[in-house]
């Protein structure tokens, strides 16, 4: 069994895998990380390997792995990955993007893939059918756009972007106008990026994941494959790749 841990700035996602099957998932506050990992190890004592992906520099102070785990890997730019990384600055490539591309490499073998992760930021990553990672783009996420309009103006309110799953083109109030501008802007942006890559790469597979995927999958016109566990699955593939190497 494998344990993968994705440590963000405030939240932590954990997954236990038996081979390639996710059998347990939990999200917790970073303060409770050590206790949660201990409980998971007690529940699944056959966990043999672990992979930690962290954006927190002092993650070793937040997490002490149980001694029963045979080997612990920490994801960084030197970690072995199955795809050819053509990013010019690999040391600055986000660990979440590495995990997402890895899962696309295995799940959609020999296919051109565009992976869209809609969370705090919206990231776009392109993996070719030959297994070459080309890079992509980073833009502000939905909540970040709403916060920017609130923070950089004197009177515009902060809008709850998940209040509704649909959005009208024309807003007849300030709040609805904000929703129209931000949400339609994001939808038009994503559609435009997808269409641009479809012109460049034939038979493009578009993968959507991230915290805002539910809203986006309901409103995007392009056919997409949406999964909430795509990043954890990618981390597990990286762990398996390194334990077998």
TrEMBL record:
It is found in: Cytoplasm. It catalyses: (R)-pantothenate + ATP = (R)-4'-phosphopantothenate + ADP + H(+). It is an enzyme of class 2 (transferase). Pfam families: Pan_kinase. Keywords: ATP-binding, Coenzyme A biosynthesis, Cytoplasm, Kinase, Metal-binding, Nucleotide-binding, Potassium, Transferase. It comes from the Bacteria. A monovalent cation. Ammonium or potassium. Pathway: Cofactor biosynthesis; coenzyme A biosynthesis; CoA from (R)-pantothenate: step 1/5. Substrate binds at residues 87, 94-97, 174. The active site is at residue 96. Its main location: cytoplasm. One of its GO terms (molecular function) is kinase activity. Its EC number is 2.7.1.33. ATP binds at residues 6-13, 120. K(+) binds at residue 117. Its cofactor is NH4(+); K(+). Homodimer. Belongs to the type III pantothenate kinase family. Catalyzes the phosphorylation of pantothenate (Pan), the first step in CoA biosynthesis. HAMAP family: Pantothen_kinase_3. This is Type III pantothenate kinase. It comes from Gangjinia marincola.
